[in-house]
What does this fold into?
Amino acid sequence: MNTSFLNTFVAVVDCGSMAAAARKLNITPAAVAQQTRTLERQIGAPLIRRSGHTVAVTEAGARIMDRARNLLRDVSDIHAVAIDDALGGELRIGAGGTALTGIVPDILSRVINKFPEVNMSIRTGLSIDLHRAVESGELDAAFVLEAPFALNKTVNWRLIREEPLIVLAPKGMSQCDPHELLASQPLIRYDRNWWGGHQVDEYLREAGIVPIERFELNSLHAIAVMVDRGLGVALVPDWSPPWPEDLDLVRLPLPLECAPRRVGVVWSRSSIRIRLLTAFIEEIKHN
It folds into this structure.
């Protein structure tokens, strides 16, 4: 069985369409379809069900999905062991949304310039999911928020950046009291399903503020744009740039003490790519 065809099948399922998988794999949609059909003939069962421009995994495809991912990971590990002395191979990295557009690009640029043989696969997601992926070995490392629970002994954590909570408001409100703004203006809330959103919720409770809620979003960039358009104010972490351009905003410090949002990197101590991973972590020190 050609493992590249197995990789194509996984990409089709993850992306939800052959066209999206083709873009991810940098091959043609026709090649994706051909490889998928060949794999189905080899296995002897249909793996995906086509419906217009989208696809859905069949029962047979769902049964082999976890094993397919594990097999592809094992193949990647074999490659990593073979070239370990050269500090090359692939690192599987995770990153939250604001980290991916903020601190991560500069770090990855330094790593790639120093170790040009390194390939990176990057997964985005919630910090809690990325933590679990590192603990399970699906990822080698991830840029995440500090976990509000004790970490598994198989992983390490290093702080990169602290981000205090601020009130984000239109510039014309720069002389206003932050708490009065939070109590009197519509609040564009940072999603409470995210750890940073939990922190915002805790501050509002401790300050005794019952906000007038308008929206609840998980994108800090989108929140900033909505505040700029006069739709309300926000209580958010002072995240790393770049911010959306041409916004006329003010960032107001809070009157009460509040623990900052802590952004860092978590990595597996038992990764088969430990030499490459160690070099990667050392580069993060220079951030």
Observations:
- The radius of gyration is 22 Å.
- The first helix runs from residue 3 to 15.
